Amino acid sequence: MNEWQAWIGREEANRDRIDEGTVARWLAMLDRTPLSDGSVPQGFHWCLCLPDAPTAMLGVDGHPVRNDSPDSFLPPISLPRRMWAASKVEFFGSLRLGRSVERFSRVVSITEKQGSSGTLVFVEIMHETLDDGEAKVREIQSLVFREPSRVNTPSPPPPGDERLDLSSWDAHRMLVPSETLLFRYSALTFNSHRIHYDLPYATNEEGYRGIVVHGPLTATLLLDLAARHFGDNQLQKFAFRGVSPAIGGEHLHLALRENGSTIEIGAYATDGRQIMAATASL
Description:
Layout: E1 11-17, H1 20-29, E2 81-91, E3 100-115, E4 118-131, E5 134-146, E6 171-175, H2 179-188, H3 199-205, H4 215-230, E7 237-242, E8 252-259, E9 262-269, E10 274-281
Antiparallel strand pairs: 1-3, 2-5, 2-7, 3-4, 4-5, 6-8, 7-10, 8-9, 9-10
Helix pairs in contact: 1-2
């Protein structure tokens, strides 16, 4: 653990531009039409200022290889499985078409824990996204690094919808994340992690039942549900935590309800298993 302390406080900066083509493709992915005021939907910041490691620098899982180079932003944690576990996001204003964007990132903490699946290392990163010099999004992102999968046989598919009761929720949407949707999200976010498109790798190497829906894609769909319910760019805060993996080709239920000043949002599988827990405020 001590060898990673040098990475705490490490910073990097990236620059990008909110171009019309990328926004059009993002909206097409979500089956949405352009926003009338020239802004972009909340969640679009996840396809800005992306890491652009050369293909030759990618590991067997599709992620950039981590090393102890002085130029490396993430620490060289040897645990092979990397997941986006959670995020806490604050929106200070809307990102807009044509604007120049800067993102400043800093490693906030590195924590090792012991879980039921073995050693876990959590890395928290703070990202601040600026639109023409003005802060618009601040996010604390939690990555988790895990040991290799110990599962030899992928779990069976879940049963039908009879155990899922969302009648007490204010809004509900069901969709089936297809291979096409996962491909488009991977392309827009330049995410080459093989669990999202390589079925033999996802099942044989990482022990999943099928290809895995990206955590931030599920979060994006929850933000889209909030936009359909409250209107675009109405959230001030949004926090999500992955609970269990969503599998491509299986029903995914998105639900939202107001609880006092807090908005509860969740994603569920057909067997009632929670995929993602989230809260938000207007």
